[in-house]
Predict the 3D structure of the following.
Amino acid sequence: MHELSLIQSIIDIVREERVKHGMERVVRVRVVNGALSGAVSDALAFGWECLTQEGELKGVALDIVDQPLKVACGSCGLEFVPEDRHCMPCPACEEILGHDILSGKELYIDEIEADTPED
Ligand SMILES: [Zn+2]
């Protein structure tokens, strides 16, 4: 499963960040998953559950934010969110081809929330 290896690299990054920032305990990790990232959010959630049953990230919550596809029209430049990712007529000029993808391809860690003692 593709998502399992993605989750494994996310876990590696979280571990590194935790050490780098001296976080006591990680409580929540937020990941942004673009509509075109190729990863299925449900599968990511499942992979996280599998790979965090043991170890230092046990019980850490994973929030997955689905990032919609956003494009800029290749003809008039209007930015819009297409309803269908296969056929994307521009709402202004109805151009279908040549749009630039502005967002929706990404998959990244947005935030790592840690339980830091208040001082
Ligand atoms: Zn247009």
In short: The longest strand covers residues 26-34. The radius of gyration is 18 Å. Strands lie at 26-34, 61-67, 70-72, 79-80, 100-103, 107-114.
